[in-house]
Design goal:
disordered N terminus, alpha/beta, Helix Hairpins, Histone, subunit A, 6 strands, single chain, about 300 residues, about 45% helix, Rossmann fold, six-stranded parallel β-sheet
Length: about 300
């Protein structure tokens, strides 16, 4: 891992459906860069269609790292990702090339580039909290979180049981508020963050979901069922996958309203986009670019190149 203040890193961030992967590949070709994935769901093996994972052909010989590294049964582990991402960044620096971090998972981006220390885990506490989640439901646990850490509760959906449980686990382990674990913006690298935004995201999200359904998302969910997708604490809750699982039996047969599942995926993705936008807008280091502009790649290069030449 690079020492603090050493080594250049470029990050391409922003909401879902802004075109981060495509622009990043263009940048990588022009900057002699290698891409490090910072999309939490693209870490999972076999989750291709529903995460819009770039195919080998689409990568155009640009090296991509940290794709397909976890089985779908694995629980999200941002501390583990942090270690792997920094190892990849150090290796890319060692090859004399530029690391290009790409993704819309805000915590994973910050874990890779900033001074963030993550508390450990307690299997006993987590197991107990998961049992309470199953028995009482996420809203009851969210109300408990709001009493202990109102700021954390304000940033976690009442339906996101996994994140609620993790926040409560951290509070119990550390004895302090969950939000206190997120310090200021203090990068360990010389980082330039390019944020992609566009005004037509609602329409693009709808088209993206339709494209995924046409591209085999239903078949992908069926294929992953025997591998444990439904029981997965993280992968099974991913956008699109969770909604299709809700209308599918264990044999992969549709037993509910598929059209409503698709519509629910669109609505949930739009809400997710708003949360991503809010997260990245809080970071004053992000340099925003209209991804719909015909010269978006040139604007990104203009923001990046002076720092590379400094």
């Amino acid at each position: 891992m690079s020492e603090p203040g050493r080594g250049r890193v470029v990050a391409v961030v922003g909401p879902t459906a802004t075109g981060k992967s495509e622009l990043a590949i263009e940048l990588a070709e022009r900057l002699d860069a290698e891409i490090v994935n910072a999309d939490s769901m693209q870490l999972y093996e076999g989750m291709d269609v529903g995460t819009a994972k770039v195919t080998p052909a689409q990568r155009r010989d640009v090296p991509h790292h940290l794709l397909d590294i976890w089985p779908i049964t694995k629980s999200a582990a941002v501390a583990e990702y942090q270690s792997m991402a920094r190892t990849e960044i150090g290796d890319i620096h060692g090859r004399g090339r530029l690391p290009l971090l790409v993704g819309g998972s805000g915590l994973y981006v910050r874990a890779a580039i900033d001074r963030l220390d993550f508390p450990g885990e307690s299997p006993a506490i987590r197991t107990r909290l998961l049992g309470e989640l199953h028995e009482l439901g996420p809203r009851t646990l969210h109300a408990r979180l709001a009493e202990l850490d109102a700021e954390a509760a304000a940033h976690i959906l009442t339906t996101n049981g996994r994140r609620i449980v993790r926040a409560l686990e951290v509070i119990e382990i550390t004895g302090g508020p969950f939000t206190a674990r997120m310090p200021g913006f203090d990068a360990i690298y010389d980082v330039v963050q390019i944020g992609l935004e566009r005004t037509d995201l609602d329409d693009r999200v709808a088209r993206r979901v339709d494209r995924m359904m046409g591209g085999g998302l239903l078949e992908e969910v069926r294929r992953l069922l025997p591998d444990g997708l439904r029981a997965s604490p993280t992968a099974g809750k991913a956008l699109g996958y969770a909604q299709l699982l809700a209308v599918m039996d264990d044999g992969g047969h549709i037993v509910g309203d598929l059209d409503e599942a698709v519509a629910t995926t669109v609505r949930a993705t739009r809400r997710f986009v708003r949360r991503q936008r809010s997260w990245f807008r809080r970071d004053p280091r992000v340099r925003w670019i209209d991804a719909a502009a015909p010269d978006a790649i040139e604007r990104a290069l203009a923001a990046i190149t002076p720092t590379l030449e400094a």
